[in-house]
Amino acid sequence: MSDLTRTPRKGPHRFSWALIAALALTACAPETDEDDDAPAGPTDSASKAPEADSAEEEPEAQEEPAQEAEESDQFTIAATGDVLIHDNVIDEAAALAEGEEYAFAPLMSGVEELIGGADLALCGLEVPIAPEGVEPVGYPVFAAPSELADDLGSVGFDGCSTANNHSFDQGVAGQERTLEVFDEAGLGHAGTARTEAEAAQPQTFTLERGGREVTVAHLATTMIHNHAFPPPEDELWRVTDVTAEELTAQAAQAREDGADVVIASVHWGEEYVHEPTAEQRDYGEQLAQSGEIDAVFGSHSHTPQPVEHLDGGPQDDGMWVVWSMGNFLSNQDEACCIPETASGIVAYATVEVSEDDAAVVAMDWLPVTVDRGPTDDEPHRGIWPLRDLAEGEIPDSVELSEATIQDRWERLLEVMTDQMLREEPPASTGSDPTRVPRSD
């Protein structure tokens, strides 16, 4: 596989593009009173050709050259909560592959349309890949099978944040192996690095939209570390842990180097709570006031936390933040933890492209939830679109009770509210993004 491109996304997407709905939701967003203009649709201005007076006067029909479809002037960036590969997830991935390797894609297939239809999709990888010779293992010291990277790509992810409190569960060997495997899979990565030069570079992606090339820079940082597995004291650059001022400087440099849009993944806050901490809010507000970052995707709590529109932003018309997206692929739910750990959200940032600018104009979300047995002896059954389940669209393979589904749905809405809930998954608006390798 080329180092510069991703493999094509698999599977058809049955949903139509819902950006008009996303923009409509922006009008209801907190802290803003301005309505976004709806994108122009088809018009009826084309006049009918006059009818010929006779057959002799009718001009000879000529075959018109095919018109190339123009790239859309909008696209969607999706981000998800924690990819947290516990033992039961590893065991089921091995069983699905009949013992020959690991197959994680089937566990994510139920939500593939929520990921693959986005124009750029990013995960929060909260585990290192197992170094050569190390057996995969889950909590408390994670080491994921290398097949995970290819399977993330196969369901539509283009890259992941790798900065978090589990980045060094397998030491430098695991941290470097993670980036090596991601490079081999053609996936981007942000937040950890093998060299100081690589640490200074964001992960960038380019997309052809609005008749031009648009560059998106992805930054990532963590405010949390596990004291038992810290980064090397003489190589702290291996994982990004920076102040809001320092992250702002990185974003400003990315823009100077050509980025049109800068997004940041931030691992912060407290576990198992439903609102941002004072420290989170202060950090996020500093980023918003900096005017260099378009949107922030938060993680670490393992529970969903709200989407908010903060004052500031690159255009001084606000910066979108989701304080935490909760869990994505994990083995947490009511059986082990608080009920809200069973669910997470996919957050969607809508980017509008003009001739000389690009900006995030909306953020909305769709919910996901895990289906696992009440004990670790039972198989992990993957993740599913929670709203679909709550509305009665329950596949035969899902073993969650209706009562459990409704309880999870109501808990999620209580935290998130339904104000910015997306109507349906997005559909791609153009060609796949190109990953630009980070300098090493």
UniProtKB/TrEMBL annotation:
SUPFAM superfamilies per UniProt: Metallo-dependent phosphatases
Gene3D superfamilies named in the record: 3.60.21.10
Record field: compositional bias (Acidic residues): 53-73
Residue stretches of biased makeup (Low complexity): 39-49
Location of the Capsule synthesis protein CapA domain: 76-332
SMART domains in the record: PGA_cap
Start and end residues of each stretch annotated as Disordered: 28-73, 419-440
Top-rank taxon: Bacteria
Family of the protein in this entry: Belongs to the CapA family.
Protein name in the entry: CapA family protein
Species this chain originates from: Nesterenkonia salmonea
Lineage: Bacteria, Bacillati, Actinomycetota, Actinomycetes, Micrococcales
